[in-house]
Write a structure and sequence with these properties.
335 residues, alpha/beta, four-stranded mixed beta sheet, single chain, 11 helices
């Protein structure tokens, strides 16, 4: 039975290796409020951060949304270029979106300015046409892209992408405090998650969705709920307690390494970007004798990448070389 199950995983998973990662989602400037009330601005946006995190791990990444022609748009474009992310959308004359972040004990709370902004200035049908001409890879989205009314365009893209053979990656990453219609937002997130092949959710996400018994000791039960919706791979994050990965009947969980915390901005994006990069670059889940070890390795890399990011201001994921060096010096704790 074990070998039949692992052989099934191999048939499903091996096609993802070395294929492109396309990212659909917000790109904005994070305005971090300083103790004196001033703002320091950094490139951000969850999908944007993930695109950079994966590209820093040597994955071929394309960012799909338009960037603004304003100065902030150029800052975002320069950041993508630095990370090695391809940009194919024409620039928009609409302004760059802005997030205001208040830090309390290293944890961020957010406010967003998202009306009439550049990264929403795209047509879903244009993206579908491009996907039809591309060898299917992985399409990642989530976060603010699931917020009505934006989710309608995104769902259109996801549905066509899935029909074309793309693997759908979703980071739930709820921002409930800025939703005008919270029930509609939660419903849209649920509908989007039902189309996911690979999915990441935090403990805060699951609590916001109204799930019961969201505890570190219940990761297996929680993951099964996502898997029952059709997901093939699930990552659950529990902040400083750690994270777990679940692929079919295989799962592993681990505590994060100790860090000198600066802030947690982009930690989840770095974590999931590292998971996607590891699966796209050298997926080991197809090998019968290495499936469980492959999942554990992916988790250890992702936790270490997120830990490095937490020791820096804003979202600054490590490069592949930095991560390899850090992993060689120490490891996370399996629990």
């Amino acid at each position: 039975f074990i070998f039949e199950r692992l052989n099934g995983l191999r048939m499903v998973e091996e096609h993802t290796m070395n294929l492109p990662l396309w990212v659909l989602g917000e790109a904005l400037m994070d305005g971090v409020v300083q103790p004196d009330g001033q703002l320091k601005l950094y490139p951000g946006g969850s999908p944007f951060n993930l695109a950079c995190a994966a590209a820093f791990q040597s994955v071929k990444v394309t960012y799909l949304n338009p960037l603004s022609t304003d100065a902030f748009g150029q800052t975002l474009a320069d950041r993508l270029t630095q990370a090695g992310v391809m940009q194919t959308a024409e620039r928009s004359t609409k302004p760059t979106s802005l997030a205001i972040i208040h830090m309390q004990q290293g944890q961020p709370s957010y406010g967003f300015y998202r009306d009439g902004v550049a990264d929403r200035d795209y047509a879903a049908d244009d993206l579908v046409r491009r996907m039809k001409a591309q060898t299917p890879g992985v399409l990642h989205t989530g976060s603010l892209m699931a917020m009505p009314p934006e989710h309608r365009k995104v769902m259109h893209v996801i549905q066509f992408a899935k029909a074309l053979g793309w693997t759908i990656s979703i980071d739930v990453n709820l921002r409930t405090q800025v939703a005008d219609d919270l029930p509609a937002y939660l419903q849209a997130v649920t509908e989007m998650a039902a189309l996911a092949d690979w999915l990441k959710a935090s403990d805060e996400d699951m609590v916001a969705l109204g799930w019961a018994d969201v505890h570190w000791d219940h990761t297996e039960t929680l993951a099964q709920r996502w898997l029952a919706m059709g997901c093939q791979r699930v990552a659950l994050t529990f902040g400083e307690q750690g994270a777990s990965l679940h692929v079919g009947d295989l799962s592993v969980k681990a505590a994060p390494p100790a860090v000198k915390l600066v802030d947690t901005v982009g930690a989840g994006d770095t974590f999931w970007g590292s998971c996607l990069a590891d699966w796209l670059m050298h997926d080991t889940l197809g090998h019968d004798d290495a499936a469980a070890q492959g999942i554990e390795k992916t988790l250890q890399r992702a936790l270490k990448a997120a830990a490095i990011n937490c020791e820096r201001v804003g979202c600054q994921p490590p490069s592949r070389e930095e991560l390899e060096h850090a992993l060689a010096r120490g490891s996370t704790s399996k629990v």
